[in-house]
Amino acid sequence: MAEHGSTLLRNAGGLHARPVVALTKVARSFPARVQIAADAAGPWIDAGSVVQVMRMKLPAGARLHVRAEGGEAAAAVAAVIALVDNGFAGAPT
Amino acid sequence: MSPLARRFCGQGAAPGFAHGPLVLMAEPRDTAAGPQAGDPGDRLQAALHAAVDALRALQARVRDEPARSILEFQLEFLSDPLLLESAAEALDGGADAAAAWCAAMDPMVADFASAGDDYFRERVTDLQDMRARVLAALAGVDSGPLRLPPEAILVADDLPPSRFLATDWQSGQAVVLRSGSPSSHLALLARARQVPMVVGLAALPPQPACRDALVDGAAGILVLDPDADERAAHGRRRAHWAQAHARSAARVAGPARTAAGEPVQVLVNVACAADLAGVQVAHCDGIGLVRTELLFAHGPPDEPTQLAAYRRLLHWAAGRPVTIRTLDAGADKPVPGLTPRAETNPFLGQRGVRLSLAHPVRFAEQLRALLRAAAEGDVRILLPMVTEPDEVRRVRALLDSAAATLRARSEPCGPVRLGMMVEVPAAALAVDAFEVDFLSIGSNDLLQYLMAAARDNATVSALADARHPAFTRLLGSIVSQARACGLPLSLCGDLAAQPEAVPLLLAAGLRTLSVPPAALGAVKAAIAAWPGGTDAQAG
Questions:
Q1: At what angle do helices B67-78 and B185-192 cross, to 10 degrees?
Q2: pLDDT: which is higher, B240 or B380
């Protein structure tokens, strides 16, 4: 069963270079297939792809929708949302 | 050429001076020379691997931000299998490797170039950097370090950040660009590596013919074939700048001592670990003030989030003290969902420790995170806006109960010292009434409350003058009270970061200052220049 969540991008700059790298790394660290979207209706894109996430050009203040399916799906959604809510401060380096 | 035709004004992107020959950078070309052997798809894949390998080798040599982040973004981007998929369509249509790569990248470059947002427009530089690197790999062209003669002034339309990072820049060299922006990543890198840089020289001809040129990286000026007067003026400004720069740079690494040889502790003020990028812990005596408001900017973070943030700072401090101020929300620093709305006078309202005590559950969360962090380093808790001794007693009670909670959870926690900001005049006049372990003067608020004048109100800000006798007397009184009680005392307000104010603070008897990392060199230089001695000493 797919897990869903959403949050607001509050860091300055939105999903620009460093946040994109952080988000894709977190998304890829779970066995689940993690996807994100700017709109709950889609299009949904692979949260592990730097190219795709960058191409969203999601600005500060936008809502980010997250969904995951497969192993540890709930933890994956929670981790992506926590990363965003933390202003990407907890990003792995 | 007339003087005007030799002089080009752009924007200063990195300060510093240079005088030497112009060297034109070969601008990258899109098409590979001659027909290429092998399957185009395989060749593109090999070129991508070569680009990733080169970036990885470069990243291994780079330690500082934002250089690491820039390289990491490019590495991750070029490692994305989606890029090959995007090129596949062009390859299937019979395109060669270079054309297929351009077909994959160009729509993205155009998309980001037209973005309304600066952060996204800035990515065009990265995209073009990667585009050029892979094209160069396909063409077998070197995109490694630039090899420049001594004192060369490199001329280009733009300079890929990765190429700038790969180059071994020597003192005396400089960069002048026809495009670019002082707020770009490239400009940040140039400032960090002290390479003078001027950008936005759109009027510079494609092949400027000249023997030599002058660069003033702060003023953003390039002069071709300078005459004797221009050379002399340039030489004077350069010598003056080099002296000032050397004074500050030489001081940043050394201990802080007055002219009489008396040691002064200098610590740094930060809001988060990112503020410490490029700062060496050996250059300071610890972190004298961590402002935690940034953590709370979007509402209160939970205990694990706070703990992670505090741990990063302790890790950087490597055993040196880290003084963390509990949430100083309210007044000019509202926190959604926490600070009261519609106070008629928020600076005299529910802010600092008053607000924290009004939300004991939230406050306990921060205290628990601080106690847990203290298991891993020297944590000192600093309370903002303390007015009454009872406020400190109530915090101690909450701290005790937070420690009991953690023990019940079997979480390791460490000993902490509890101190207070001296920023409310009532507290400043009765420091000895408080049961605290240390004191830190918040000069911004203390001065504005004492003088009843806001610093951000231009019509009255002149009243908030630290040289006013009322303020210097109050400082002296705090110093002697602290000494009488045996309490360590520091000052962490903006005053400490102003080199011209440092003598006033030292004369008042302060011997511990906490300043923004960027001010370390200038403040140490001001301390070294201070000839005086004093009877009263503190902290």
A1: 130
A2: B380
Total count of residues recorded for chain A: 93
CB contact under 8 A, B73 and A10: no
**B330 - beta bridge partners?**
B333
Q: Answer yes or no: B413 catalytic.
A: no
- A55 vs B309: CB contact, 8 Å cut-off? no
Nearest neighbour of A14 by CB, restricted to B72, B119, B309:
B119
Indicate the pTM of the whole model.
0.56
CA B170 from centre of chain: 24
Do residues B50 and B79 touch, judged by C-beta distance below 8 A? no
Determine, for residues A50 and B80 on separate chains, whether the beta-carbon distance falls below 8 Å: yes
Query: Which residue from A51, A82, A86 is facing B82, i.e. has the nearest CB?
Result: A51
Helix (H) or strand (E) holding A45: strand A45-46
- The pairing of strands B7-9 and B174-177 is unpaired
Contact by Cβ (8 Å): B234, B217: no
How many Å separate Cα B121 from the centre of its chain?
22
Which residues in chain B have their CB less than 8 angstroms from residue A20's CB? Answer: 73, 76
Q: In B, which residues are within 8 Å of A18 by CB distance?
A: 69, 72-73
Cα–Cα distance between B313 and B54 in angstroms, integer? Answer: 32
Spatial separation of the C-alpha atoms in residues B193 and B189, rounded to whole Å: 6
Q: Quick one: tokens of B77?
A: 């981007």
pLDDT at B527: 94
pLDDT above 60: residue B450: yes
> Among B303, B287, B285, B283, which Cα is nearest to B295's?
B303
User: Residue B234's beta-bridge partner residues?
Assistant: none
Best of A20, A54, A58, A64 to mutate (most B CBs within 10 Å, chain B): A54
- Cβ pair B335, B327 in contact under 8 A: yes
Q: Which tens digits make up the pLDDT trace of B369-384?
A: 999 999 999 999 999 9
Q: Is the peptide bond before B499 cis (omega within 30 degrees of 0)?
A: no
Structure confidence at residue B209 as a pLDDT band (50, 70, 90): confident
In chain B, what residues touch A14 (CB-CB under 8 Å)? Answer: 117, 119
The alpha carbon of residue B455 is apart from the nearest alpha carbon of chain A, in Å, by 26
d(CA B474, CA B390): 23
pLDDT tens-digit profile of B24-37?
A: 987 655 454 555 67
> Are A57 and B112 an interchain contact pair (Cβ–Cβ within 8 Å)?
yes
DSSP B321-339: -EEEEPP--BTTB--TTTS
Distance from CA of A21 to the nearest CA of B (A): 6
3-state helix, strand, coil in chain B (%, to 5): 50, 15, 35
Q: What is the pLDDT of residues A13-54, one digit of tens each?
A: 788 888 899 999 999 999 999 999 999 998 999 999 999 999
- Rounded to an integer, what distance in angstroms lies between the CA atom of residue B356 and that of residue B328? 8
Residue B184 has pLDDT above 70, yes or no: yes
Q: What is the DSSP letter of B501?
A: G
Q: Is B298 a catalytic residue?
A: no
pLDDT at B538: 42
- Tell me which residue of A80, A76, A69, A66 sits closest to A23, measured CA to CA: A80
Question: Which chain A residues are Cβ-neighbours of B310 within 8 angstroms?
Answer: none
Chain B partners within 8 Å of A55 (Cβ) = 108, 111
CA A28 to chain B, closest CA, distance in angstroms equals 12
- Which CA distances in Å does A40 have to A24, A43, B107? 19, 8, 26
